[in-house]
Amino acid sequence: MNRIALMSCLIALAFVPAACNRSSTETTPAAASTAPSPAAAAVAKAAAYTDQDISDAWIYLLGRLLVLRQQKADLAEGWKWNTMIHRKPGAVDWPNPNLDVAYSEAWVAVDENNCTLVTVPKVTGRYYTVQFLNGWGETVANINERTQAAHPSGEFAVCLQGANVKLPANTTRIDVPVKYMRVLARVELGDNWDEAVALQHKFSMRSTGAPTPPTLPAFPDFDVQHLPGVEAFESAPAVLDSEKDINAGMEGLEAKARAIAEGIRDPAERARVEKVVREKAQADLAKAGALIGHGTTKNGWVRPHAAGTYGDDWLGRTLVNLGGIWANRLDEVIYYKSSMDGDGVQLNGDHVYTLTFPKDALPPTFANYFWSVIAVDPIHARVLPNPKNRFLLNRESGLKYGDDGSLTLYFAAEKPADAPDSNWLPTPKGKDYRLTFRFYGPKGGVADGTYFPPPLVKRS
Fold first, then answer.
1. How far is CA 421 from CA 82, 221, 412, 415, 426, in A?
2. In the prediction, which pLDDT does 317 show?
């Protein structure tokens, strides 16, 4: 796929908060031997997989590689297992960051004899959650007042299913299906950041013992602008063995990836797979990115079909992992993304856009906790520098409402003359950008999928 096509893919993909875009320090696995094994030659001769199989298996495998890449980058920073790192508000280098919350992060290891103890302070009137995800980017647990209504705070033990571990008294046990997890704790900043940060630092974790951390498999070095080609399959068996997919029905895709890994030991077959990946698989990924796989669109906004947990939607999972990573479940937060105005034209900082909500459908109507809209660049999904250092609009922005009770937000490089300053989000002059709208604690039409934000109207 040429660079222009790849850029369009990236524009379509990134839309969720949550992860760093640091480059992996992995070393590309050694090149395959030029002398095929009998098994490899047999696979190639039998044509056991089609071009579409190659595309599907590559996209499926990429979802796992993206998590491994992030794990490698995190551990290279010196993270210690089962220990939380508390980030300062806004001090994250992530695609599409959620600047409404203070983040804390960790990698967690548990096993048959060891659990991870998590301390959660009492939090009232403020959104929070401690999210656990597996090696494919699937949410396997949340600790908050919604999932633990009887005891939303105190001591929790996250344990491998079936683990025989003696736990401290008054500890709430939460069983998970995997040994290794990524953790994102979020605490809503609201209008009192000091209070939020104080709460954030009361979250902590520790292991009951000394579980063995995983040995990461070898995988190719890549970044979001230079995705792996045929080399993605070189270590496919080890990558797949390193973390079982918890979703049913993935055996066929795994078998195809393993067959391709064997087949590419034949030089001719390797060349064929490389061509299919570059010309078809990446094009298939780009095409699917427009709707985040199986999402829906209205008014120029796209709503994902799945996030956080995916079932058989492996395509959506890979797209989410590529566009952001660590997305939470749709009952926790709904993300809408838009690169287009209401006429289907790419958003650009040379123009002024308005987004108007009528009195009976203001953003708080659809969120139990909070909402926000953020602008990011279309390639790396980073917030856009501007003289006001204003990167999002939300309920703490001091928004001004119209005489009829409506709310109009403005997106422009320079403040429109009739726009209240608090309602204006600066955008980059002459450059394309993208918007992400979040509803935390979705309710009403946002929760059931019937609501979409109004279209962006280009005024000039």
1. 44, 44, 12, 7, 10
2. 97
